[in-house]
Amino acid sequence: MRAKISYAVTAAVLVFYFVLVGSRGVMLIQSGTVLTVTFGVAVLILPVIGLWFLWKNTQFVRRANALAAELDAEGGLPVDELERTPSGRIDRDSADEVFARRKAETEAAPDDWRSWFRLAVAYHDARDTPRARKAMQRAIALHDG
Prior knowledge:
This protein is mainly α. It has helices at residues 2-31, 34-74, 92-108, 113-125, 129-144. The chain is elongated and about 65 Å long. The model has no long low-confidence stretch (mean pLDDT 91).
């Protein structure tokens, strides 16, 4: 729940920023000189790209959460069996061991979105965010058909 609140607050701040920047771009365009119109258009491009990125990221998170809920209903969510350091961080060797099992599971069933979901969690636990995201995208694509 805490992560959802943080995400919502961050998204709201970004939207506020995009509106603020967009209004400045419109003001520059309304000035009417060639230079200010050029800068105004350039300034308007930033919020458009930012809003697109925020939208795509929100869709990704919603789809991943839907998969997690479905897997939880099936009783297939990965169990947290990772050892932790005294500070609470995941032990690297423990994460690598779980990752090896998840990778073998995914190689045995490459068309199963559930195994890709669990592999994404293992990548995340191993602190490999780019690969975790790609594995989750693969799980979403397999689930959606």
